[in-house]
Amino acid sequence: SDGRVEITSGDGATSLRLRGLVQADYRWFDSANEPADTFLLRRARLVFEGKFNNIFSYVVQPEFAGTIQILDANVNVAVSPAFNVRIGKFKTPVGLEQLQSDPVAFFNERSVATNLTPNRDVGIQLQGDVLNKTLNYTVALLNGVPDGGNNVTGSADFDSDKTVAARLFATPFVNQKDSLFTGLGVGLAVSLGDYATASGRTGGYRTDGQQTFFSYDASVVANGQGVTWSPQGYYYRGPLGILAEYVASSIELQRGALPVREVENFGYNLSVGYVLTGEDSTYRGVTPKTVFNPSAGTWGAFEVVARVSGLDVDDSVFSGGAAGRFAAPNVSASKLTAYGLGLNWYLSRSVRAGFNLYQNKFDLAPDAVPAANALIADDETAFITRLQISF
Amino acid sequence: SDGRVEITSGDGATSLRLRGLVQADYRWFDSANEPADTFLLRRARLVFEGKFNNIFSYVVQPEFAGTIQILDANVNVAVSPAFNVRIGKFKTPVGLEQLQSDPVAFFNERSVATNLTPNRDVGIQLQGDVLNKTLNYTVALLNGVPDGGNNVTGSADFDSDKTVAARLFATPFVNQKDSLFTGLGVGLAVSLGDYATASGRTGGYRTDGQQTFFSYDASVVANGQGVTWSPQGYYYRGPLGILAEYVASSIELQRGALPVREVENFGYNLSVGYVLTGEDSTYRGVTPKTVFNPSAGTWGAFEVVARVSGLDVDDSVFSGGAAGRFAAPNVSASKLTAYGLGLNWYLSRSVRAGFNLYQNKFDLAPDAVPAANALIADDETAFITRLQISF
Amino acid sequence: SDGRVEITSGDGATSLRLRGLVQADYRWFDSANEPADTFLLRRARLVFEGKFNNIFSYVVQPEFAGTIQILDANVNVAVSPAFNVRIGKFKTPVGLEQLQSDPVAFFNERSVATNLTPNRDVGIQLQGDVLNKTLNYTVALLNGVPDGGNNVTGSADFDSDKTVAARLFATPFVNQKDSLFTGLGVGLAVSLGDYATASGRTGGYRTDGQQTFFSYDASVVANGQGVTWSPQGYYYRGPLGILAEYVASSIELQRGALPVREVENFGYNLSVGYVLTGEDSTYRGVTPKTVFNPSAGTWGAFEVVARVSGLDVDDSVFSGGAAGRFAAPNVSASKLTAYGLGLNWYLSRSVRAGFNLYQNKFDLAPDAVPAANALIADDETAFITRLQISF
Asked: Angle at CA A260, nearest 5°, toward A258 and A265?
């Protein structure tokens, strides 16, 4: 129902779900250093999900907005609930917000902390629920993508070194339905790999308004180990939801023939949501009690959300002079603090309008003078509205 | 039936339709200035259309032939039949032929007048049927695309100015089933916006054979207001169909630092179809009474079509000398008059073969000498055949 | 069942099948001249197949891994079982292994002989089964693609000359179910066309490990006739399967203004498979008697496969000195002999794991000294593993 189509065999052992996601935005920016106000088709996805024999399942999810690409294409073999093997392209199991399905996140855009967590990659993953479903474990071996990176085409690796990512996530009270802590989850994730070439470092970090505020000099390459780790957790109770995450990402970088230096960047995200109409907030989204239907006098559900997040770049990236530094202080900021406020209107289980106001403050490197028209010359204020259908 | 698949809930409030379109052409050209004869995959589309709760609907339509892109991706909220809100990527509501679904148009290729109407864009649109369904209104706010343009990726705007498009279309006798004018529709559409940069002017105008016969100099940019307006109408009665459209498109252009000059181009299209086997002609196509089935001795339906259309470029584009003119008179024509004759064979409701002969005559700027091998050196004669399936 | 979804009308005359293919690889290479070990998303396809009225059918198959493209988009009109007309984009009817559906081939990668057969193209094809289904004929008129080539976008031809491809394939004993030769098929295919420009010659020949071991100099263009012919056959009986193919491909090439010279390259492939668990081997794959289900103690089917194949480039391509030769002997080999051994594990009808070991030996041109790091400096050893789902 509600736009979701599932074709199922009589015994339920075989099914195909046809799903999709369309997100259409309007975005206002307040200053001349920022991009033009614009309509934007943010996401247009189709999802084919199937399972059969109660053991095998698959996902094929192409993205048609922006850069057309295959997001997910993988096979899962459920040897048992506690032991699944997944092979293909899927999300790297590190960031809590990164792993949450985009259309059910509190805000239209993920927090700036998610700049530091790897995104989709190709590889093999073992995962399962153990200890009476109170603990989920995931271990993956992957080609390796940098901070915020995505193996867009599912293509081959640049070197033979692989990346290991592992995540433990506990929901210790999930089976105690009346507990104050039924909706509590805490976890720790880490990824570790060797990286090389320009494709081994991040392509840049972006603000809430999706503008690049930090990027390495084009001549900087990864040359050594990269480690990301993230303690993370959430708490949901009734209409209240809280999601918190801390990410530290270190990488060994090199510019030209100069010595390799390790850089360590940090990010954090604290997000809160409260459903004004009383529905339950969950990590998988909000299901409104009523559907928007003016003739019936029903309006759906409303939720207010707030977020503070930040990203702190290693100060050493700006040292070494113009010929030796990793980043230019006149166009890249040293630190970002991002505030967000929003209202979500759930017109139905599948349709949501989101109204987000973002205020992003930049700290520059000592003595830095921003270039004319540089994004970092002024704080960023952005108002991003969205209508989305996730069927 | 007939290849169309719809999955519907018991109460009909929720449905998903899986549709598609494949068009495969063979194209002959008669002269050395024209392209090689060729097979061509013209369109290969899948369409996912759904609705639910009788209020919400969506379309996701990727195109896989030529430049792979998302054509339509939008959400429609039907507050009432008279008031719909559509958000995402969709066709700009201006051209009558542009708005008609491609597989049901009289000819394999739209007329040269459609060069002047904007195509798909991202934005928000209000539309509805009022006055007992005798009047349809549409108002849209969009990023803005130039003549014949298409916001291919649904991407951001180059400036903060937005484009307004509005269309009124009346079918005053639609409720009088026995009237001579039941199938009469007349309308007026207009779009108005500010444009800038090379992406604000047309990428070129094409003949019926889809060859570019006019394009601005690469250094010409839009710099000011663009206005398109179009009176339009159709008349269908029994096997007869007539579609007529006039388009005027003006745009302020600039070359280098020279003064801004306004250019106004005109187009027209008069198309007629007659179904020889007696089926009704409609704006939504022809449904044959029989299906092609040689063993049963049935052959489907046949329709003859004829068209005269033209495009007249503002003569001032050629003035100003080699360093100041907007277009080069040796490769761009000043005027195009296009004649088309065709036969459509409806093998079934979903399968159509179309045989089109096009004769396109160029008028050159005064004293212009066409370049060697320039398309405009000779009239264009093209024979475009197509087999299409629109399921 | 088994993940395959078909929506059918009551009378079976109309149906839509939603299918797909995901192939996820891990690939090891043994030497520094070869690429890095890597995970790879090899194929991610969706397939929409429909038929209606028992006469019309269509296929739309986009590929989302690697270069996103439309593979098949065509309409088939079954005038009678003996006379079908297909129009659009489809596989050129030449290579036996090329025509076999990829997920059911013995090996993860097709043999090196398939480098010499044309792949997908746009055009029109007549085909049918005659003589009580003991003979299949196919004749196609196409734009023309070079050896191993693919008309990626279904785009227009570079010249007006078209390519003819024809294939006869006999299964003389297919109606004698108890014959020793029920599963015997033999055929002959040929394609013939005029080619020009760099797009008329092959883009390069690849090893089993999918690395290019031969390519023409960038200044070499096709300029004249190209002919491919291939005797071919298979034999399936119980768990045993044998597939054999020989291909000769000649093309007239030219470098700069030097004289046109004809080049003829040869390839062969002999592949054998044996299903250890006793299921039947067929050209359309293996259906395991049991499904992988550890809790039920069933494991699916297992098959061993072996292959020897080769590709012999015309020695004359290396003659003419550095300024006149068609290929450089220090990076392109003169001959490739490829050995393959593999194990296929059919976890279900839709899920297969394949483990392939390839050993590829290069013969260089006389007196050739391979360039440093050239692939051809050492034999190639590759181990390519794959998990695939073909629903």
From this structure: 125
Distance (Å, whole) CA C254 – CA A265: 56
Tens digits of residue pLDDT in B115-174: 999 999 999 999 999 999 999 999 999 999 999 888 887 777 878 889 999 999 999 999
Q: Answer yes or no: do B52 and A7 touch at CB < 8 A.
A: no
User: Is residue B51 situated within a structural domain?
Assistant: no
Per-residue pLDDT for chain A (391 aa), expressed as one digit of tens each? Answer: 555 667 776 666 778 889 999 999 999 999 878 889 999 999 999 999 999 888 999 999 999 999 999 999 999 999 998 999 999 999 999 999 999 999 999 999 999 999 999 999 999 999 999 999 999 999 999 999 999 888 887 777 878 889 999 999 999 999 999 999 999 999 999 999 999 998 889 999 999 999 999 999 999 999 999 999 999 999 999 999 999 999 999 999 999 999 999 999 999 999 999 999 999 999 999 999 999 999 899 999 999 999 999 999 999 999 999 999 999 999 999 999 999 999 999 999 999 999 999 999 999 999 999 998 899 999 999 999 999 999 8
Q: Is A48 on the interface with C (CB under 8 A)?
A: yes
Q: What is the pLDDT of residue B151?
A: 87
Structural domain range at position A284: 5-390
What are the chain A neighbours of C347 within 8 Å (beta carbons)? 56, 77
Q: How far is CA C177 from CA C82, C172, C173, in A?
A: 22, 11, 8
Q: Does C292 touch chain A (CB under 8 A)?
A: yes
Say if residues A260 and A252 touch (Cβ distance below 8 Å).
yes
Within 8 A of B24 by CB-CB distance, chain C residues are: 73-75, 87-89, 122, 124
* Tokens standing for residue B165: 């498009």
Between CA B198 and CA C77 the distance in angstroms is 45
E-strand ranges in C56-183 read: 56-63, 69-80, 83-91, 120-130, 135-142, 163-170
Please tell me the distance in Å from B112's CA to the nearest CA on chain C: 21
CATH number of the structural domain spanning residue A152: 2.40.160.10
Tell me the two tokens of residue C114.
């398939």
Q: Which of C26, C40, C62 sits opposite A154 (nearest CB)?
A: C40
Spatial CB neighbours of A191, under 8 Å, sequence gap ≥ 6: A92, A94, A118, A163, A164, A165, A166, A226, A227, A228, A229
Option in B7, B68, B156 nearest A40 (CB): B156
Contacts of residue C124, Cβ cutoff 8 Å, sequence gap at least 6? B24, B26, B39, C85, C86, C87, C140, C141
Residues A233 and A184: beta-carbon distance below 8 Å: yes
How many Å apart are CA A289 and CA A300, to the nearest integer? 7
Tokens of C174: 């297919």
Half-sphere CA count of A7, side-chain side, radius 13 A: 21
The pLDDT-based confidence of B2 (bands split at 50, 70, 90) is low
Any C CB within 8 A of A118 CB: no
How many domains, in total, are found in chain C? 1
Q: Where are the beta strands (DSSP E) in A148-300?
A: 163-170, 184-197, 205-206, 212-214, 220-237, 240-255, 261-275
Helix/strand/coil for B211: coil
Alpha-carbon distance of C333 to A143, in angstroms, equals 31
3-state secondary structure C321-375: HHHHCCCCCCCCCCEEEEEEEEEEEECCCCEEEEEEEEEEEEECCCCCCCCCCCH
For the stretch B203-250, pLDDT in tens is 999 999 999 999 999 999 999 999 999 999 999 999 999 999 999 999
- Residues present in chain C in total: 391
Is B301 domain-assigned?
Answer: yes
**Any A CB within 8 A of B154 CB:** yes
Confidence of residue C153 (pLDDT cuts 50, 70, 90): confident
Q: Is B116 helix (H, G, I), strand (E, B) or coil?
A: helix
Pairing of strands A135-142, A120-130: antiparallel
